[in-house]
Amino acid sequence: xxxxxxxxxxxxxxxxxxxxxxxxxxxxxxxxxxxxxxxxxxxxxxxxxxxxxxxxxxxxxxxxxxxxxxxxxxxxxxxxxxxxxxxxxxxxxxxxxxxxxxxxxxxxxxxxxxxxxxxxxxxxxxxxxxxxxxxxxxxxxxxxxxxxxxxxxxxxxxxxxxxxxxxxxxxxxxxxxxxxxxxxxxxxxxxxxxxxxxxxxxxxxxxxxxxxxxxxxxxxxxxxxxxxxxxxxxxxxxxxxxxxxxxxxxxxxxxxxxxxxxxxxxxxxxxxxxxxxxxxxxxxxxxxxxxxxxxxxxxxxxxxxxxxxxxxxxxxxxxxxxxxxxxxxxxxxxxxxxxxxxxxxxxxxxxxxxxxxxxxxxxxxxxxxxxxxxxxxxxxxxxxxxxxxxxxxxxxxxxxxx
Length: 402
Description:
Layout: H1 3-35, H2 38-54, H3 56-66, H4 68-90, H5 95-131, H6 135-163, H7 165-183, H8 194-197, H9 200-212, H10 215-245, H11 250-278, H12 280-298, H13 304-332, H14 338-350, H15 352-362, H16 368-388
Helix pairs in contact: 1-2, 1-5, 1-6, 1-7, 1-10, 2-5, 2-10, 2-15, 3-4, 3-5, 4-5, 4-7, 5-6, 6-7, 6-11, 9-14, 10-13, 10-14, 10-15, 10-16, 11-12, 11-13, 12-13, 12-16
């Protein structure tokens, strides 16, 4: 592991991932604590993901035009300013103004997270290309960084919210964002490829055409989109279920996602060996089963430990499915149209998250369990189609990358 790669790629990625993880899981808790409303918590979740979807194409074009390092620094700086300004403001406003402010904060955090995510992924791709024959090691480290941040971020956010209040949590997010901007590298930006500067409609059309021509990938993307609907609903509903139904604290909500991240990290660490031994398709089917069963059971978890365990198993299976998807994407999508096809697949996979927020906002809190069960049924159908309509197994299993 070279010193330049650690300083220029891994450390900025770690700081940014930690800030993003705390914002992603901490802000819904902040909304619930400020408004005491499950509907507004769902709306905040929807706004965060809707803003990510709306800025996805814009973020990609900005990275192509100005370079990933510059956009990475700007996004981190903007997040530091937003969180830093919101921290003292929340303590000086009335309930109505505070409710509007936390919803706006959720939307801004989602937008800036999308910019930093696209920029970080582009920087990781540059590092992979420079690594040559050991590119898979770079991607393994980056995936481990993301999982580690997902492990620590939710617990830290929940604990800070409980011990230091909203201002303390937002101040830490702002500080991590400042650190990210300071240590972000100043890389040289290569000229954009012709495909990157062409009309957006042409890129989308190319991506759709390529995806339709790859039925194995298309079915898997569709199945994982339905699975993401269940995952998104679970993420949006967890603060309400844990705090309101199970009577736990905000720190307990963070502990759920930290345990889930630990299970995901363990699953990702071991799946490369299981894939080498049993093949991509067989491991994918087992992961789908591991994901489906706890999704049905979590709606009926009557205690906090049972809910925590089921959520962790769900996330472990989902992480292995993500490895399967990334491997197929790397193997099946032609390099010449990889960017445009990747944009389409990511859009399809992200669309269920704002939909989950809308469902959470519309449904009565007493009916959340029924809604989770319905989403589990849709997930079961989608993953069953994904792994029964796939084509012949492919022998290449070594690349696990986005």
